Amino acid sequence: MNCFYHPNTPAVATCRDCGKAICKDCTTEMTNGDLLCPSCLESLGYYQLNWLKKFKKRLIAGGILGGIFLFFMIKELGTAGIIWGLIIGFFLFCLPVSYFVFGETPDPYVPTSLESAGKLELLKFGISFITSPIGLIKSIGKYKRMKAAAESNLKR
Ligand SMILES: [Zn+2]
Ligand SMILES: [Zn+2]
Questions:
Q1: Residue 2, Ramachandran bin (φ over 0: left; ψ between -120 and 50: alpha; else beta)
Q2: Where are the domains of the chain?
Q3: What is the distance between the alpha carbons of residues 36 and 13, in angstroms, rounded to a whole number?
Q4: Tens digit of pLDDT for each residue in 98-113?
Q5: What are the helix (H) ranges across the chain?
Q6: Ligand 1 ion: Cβ-proximal residues, 5 Å cutoff
Q7: pTM of full prediction above 0.70
Q8: What is the distance in A from the centroid of ligand 1 to the CA of 4?
């Protein structure tokens, strides 16, 4: 049987909650030894809290990255550097969050040939950079959903 999320990869386990067949990459082992698939893992409160923490760190990293870039552009090019520094700096600012959110969900439609050739990371990085402002907007949507889910989980 092959992985539900990666139809070309052999499954190594079944998810505790939904029973789907999952490959090594999709399997997360809980401290009690239970195995979970990515989507069931996402519905757990502790995962959500962890995700929110990571999200904030990425946002700060993006701010530093964009800020440094802007600083060097102004230092090198003076006033002309402000425009380019702001435009490219903005993309750089969005990149860590965009890459994080885009890269974390296993995509069932990614060809395994790309994955095994190691080109996938490069591809993800390229797409994340070009679409990083869109990625940021999407990420904020996911952030809000995660936050609401985490809060409702904690109240239970
Ligand atoms: Zn599952
Ligand atoms: Zn998989």
A1: beta
A2: 1-43, 45-155
A3: 9
A4: 877 766 655 444 455 5
A5: 38-42, 45-77, 79-104, 112-116, 119-130, 132-155
A6: 15, 17-18, 37, 40
A7: no
A8: 10
